[in-house]
């Protein structure tokens, strides 16, 4: 459809474009039509150059203003609404930022939002999981302007092209409603959970925060990201941003190793789209074995060190 | 300060959801219903603010047919002072709910509005930010810590990379994440007392808001189940299969 015009709202931090943007571009390309990308924040121009190289991008709008750092919903919302007029579709990744900003945008535009889309059927019809992923709903938007968040792991990152043009737009500035105080990021050298090719997650079966080192040992051998079940987070073994599940992160790596995780629905909702799932558990009745491609019934405290040694 | 808490009646989170044979929708007949878990957390936070002397009144509101009064009674048993039922025979979507709640906010003038971060049925995660937009209030979604000092609100939010803290002035809209608190259970005497308390009712069509659904449900499907694979006998066999069969390491 030639009259389809899409605006993808990218996330950037200190000039680095979020890896989810290339995946949202894949979803955008399935709608047909032209795709512009909006990049806003301090050092937006630097990230905009990277966005311009993503396959399928027609043009990039860069708004360099620190008011848009941390994707503050009040400021980003006003900016997106000011640019929304020519577009038929507004897309953003369903990250915590996208889920924070986009409903505000939709309400300001007086339209509904389609959250966490995992498949594009047509320019107005989409598939999204409901009930913690136990049901897939196919829904058609009845709005002229469609506000959509995309589940990044359900799409593939697009490749590179000759850079599209980058233009600058005027900032709508700080709306003065919210002040950013600080952030506590759980940094580290390991890959980020959302984009990792391999993930190893630990559950309550680890028994303590110290024993999570067994998981980290294997992770370092595989160059994997470390995840956790809600039980492990609630028991205080690891910080909550490592949680995989309905109330944590949705992941779909090539290899997912679940160690000491029983496999509650809540957890499965976050990882069951992984390509290969390995379960290591001492309880041979654990539900995780019903979804695992390879299951090993074993004591974690022997199996994990052995795995680390032999990899 | 008055705290308004939005409550949604949803299928109990332990129930396995089924779909109708014709794939037209999920099948909720005879399903056990309950208060959405994130709404429980929102209500708990409101009651704690009252116990700390920060809030002086907690008002619970729910939209739906008469059955939602059950959850409003639970809310009163858990510490809400009043309950407001917006009666609607048809389900409202997130924008519809946000528009109704915006009218309730206009009427009640709360100092703080608390909602869950998402309902476990539609998993949309929209109503809170939509309400904030319609009432032109600041928003803090996915809250794991709330600190109130006079009319200043500090909220720690769960974000993808960790946590961030925002400051804003009240009134504001806050949506609750899992780790904000551990909701209490209702005590039997409180449940008995809540049964007799009046619930104020409002008809949705008297509010003058457009709650026409923005989406048509075309069909529902059960996702293709993953099949159990093979049991491996040893770590050696596991490594061998991952290398040579699955080719993922």
TrEMBL record, chain A:
UniProt cofactor(s): FAD
Listed CDD domains: ETF_alpha
Annotated family: Belongs to the ETF alpha-subunit/FixB family.
Amino-acid positions noted as binding FAD in the UniProt annotation, renumbered to this chain: 204, 229-230, 243-247, 260-267, 281
This protein's UniProt keywords: Electron transport, FAD, Flavoprotein, Transport
Presence of keyword Lipid metabolism: no
Positions of the Electron transfer flavoprotein alpha/beta-subunit N-terminal domain: 6-184
UniProt cofactor note: Binds 1 FAD per dimer.
Entry annotated with the keyword Transport: yes
PANTHER family: ELECTRON TRANSFER FLAVOPROTEIN ALPHA, ELECTRON TRANSFER FLAVOPROTEIN SUBUNIT ALPHA, MITOCHONDRIAL
Record-level Gene Ontology MF annotations: electron transfer activity; flavin adenine dinucleotide binding
Role summary: The electron transfer flavoprotein serves as a specific electron acceptor for other dehydrogenases. It transfers the electrons to the main respiratory chain via ETF-ubiquinone oxidoreductase (ETF dehydrogenase).
Protein name per Swiss-Prot or TrEMBL: Electron transfer flavoprotein subunit alpha
Any single GO BP term: fatty acid beta-oxidation using acyl-CoA dehydrogenase
Pfam families from the UniProt entry: ETF (PF01012), ETF_alpha (PF00766)
UniProt source species: Kushneria phyllosphaerae
TrEMBL record, chain B:
Cofactor: AMP
Keywords, alphabetical: Electron transport, Transport
Molecular function (Gene Ontology), one example: electron transfer activity
UniProt record, GO biological process: carboxylic acid catabolic process
Pfam families from the UniProt entry: ETF
Domain Electron transfer flavoprotein alpha/beta-subunit N-terminal: 23-211
Job description of the protein: The electron transfer flavoprotein serves as a specific electron acceptor for other dehydrogenases. It transfers the electrons to the main respiratory chain via ETF-ubiquinone oxidoreductase (ETF dehydrogenase).
Subunit comment: Heterodimer of an alpha and a beta subunit.
Family indicated by similarity: Belongs to the ETF beta-subunit/FixA family.
Name of this chain's protein: Electron transfer flavoprotein subunit beta
Lineage, broadest ranks: Bacteria, Pseudomonadati, Pseudomonadota, Gammaproteobacteria, Oceanospirillales
Name of the gene encoding the protein in the UniProt record: etfB
């Amino acid at each position: 459809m030639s009259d389809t015009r899409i605006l993808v709202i990218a996330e950037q931090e200190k000039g680095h474009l979020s890896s989810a943007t290339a995946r949202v571009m894949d979803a955008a390309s399935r709608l047909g039509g032209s795709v512009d990308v909006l990049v806003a924040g301090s050092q937006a121009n630097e990230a905009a150059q990277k966005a311009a190289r993503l396959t399928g991008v027609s043009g990039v709008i860069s708004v360099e203003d620190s008011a848009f750092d941390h994707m503050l919903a009040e400021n980003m919302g006003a900016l997106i609404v000011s640019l929304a007029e020519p577009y038929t579709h507004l897309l953003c990744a369903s990250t915590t930022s996208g889920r924070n900003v986009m409903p505000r945008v939709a309400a300001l535009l007086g339209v509904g939002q389609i959250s966490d889309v995992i498949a594009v059927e047509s320019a107005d019809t989409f598939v999204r999981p409901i009930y913690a992923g136990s049901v897939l709903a196919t829904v058609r938007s009845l709005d002229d302007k469609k506000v959509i968040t995309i589940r990044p792991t359900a799409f593939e990152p697009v490749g590179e092209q000759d850079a599209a043009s980058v233009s600058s737009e005027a900032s709508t500035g700080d709306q003065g409603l919210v002040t950013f105080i600080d952030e506590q990021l759980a940094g580290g050298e390991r890959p980020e959970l959302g984009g990792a090719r391999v993930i190893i997650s630990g559950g309550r079966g680890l028994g303590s925060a110290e024993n999570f080192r067994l998981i980290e040992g294997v992770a370092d051998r595989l160059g994997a990201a470390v995840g956790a079940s809600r039980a492990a987070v609630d028991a205080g073994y690891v910080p909550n941003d490592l949680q995989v599940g309905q109330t944590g992160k949705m992941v779909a790596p090539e290899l997912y190793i679940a160690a000491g995780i029983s496999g509650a629905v809540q957890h499965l909702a976050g990882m069951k789209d992984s390509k290969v799932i390995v379960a290591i558990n001492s309880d041979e009745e654990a539900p995780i074995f019903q979804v695992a491609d390879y299951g090993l019934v074993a004591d974690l405290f022997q199996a994990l060190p052995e795995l680390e040694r032999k990899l | 300060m008055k705290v308004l808490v939005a409550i949604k009646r949803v299928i109990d989170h332990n129930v396995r959801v089924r779909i109708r044979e014709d794939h037209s929708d999920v099948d909720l007949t005879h399903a056990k219903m309950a208060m959405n878990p994130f709404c429980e957390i929102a209500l708990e936070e409101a009651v704690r603010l009252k116990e700390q002397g920060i809030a002086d009144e907690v008002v619970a509101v729910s939209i739906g047919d008469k059955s939602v009064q059950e959850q409003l009674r639970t809310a009163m048993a858990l510490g809400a002072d009043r309950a407001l039922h917006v009666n609607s025979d048809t389900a409202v979507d997130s924008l519809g709910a946000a528009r109704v709640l915006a009218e309730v906010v206009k009427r009640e003038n709360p100092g703080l509005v608390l909602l869950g971060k998402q309902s476990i049925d539609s998993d949309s995660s929209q109503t809170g930010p939509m309400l904030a937009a319609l009432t032109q209030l600041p928003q803090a979604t996915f809250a794991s810590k709330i600190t109130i000092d006079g009319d200043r609100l500090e909220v720690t939010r769960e974000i993808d990379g960790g946590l961030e803290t925002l400051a804003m002035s009240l009134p504001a809209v806050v949506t609750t994440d899992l780790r904000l608190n551990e909701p209490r259970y209702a005590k039997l005497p409180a449940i008995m007392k809540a049964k007799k308390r009046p619930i104020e009712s409002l008809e949705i069509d008297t509010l003058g808001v457009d709650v026409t659904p923005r989406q048509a449900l075309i069909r529902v499907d059960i996702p293709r189940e993953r099949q159990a694979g093979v049991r491996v006998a040893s770590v050696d066999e596991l490594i061998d299969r991952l290398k040579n069969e699955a080719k993922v390491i």
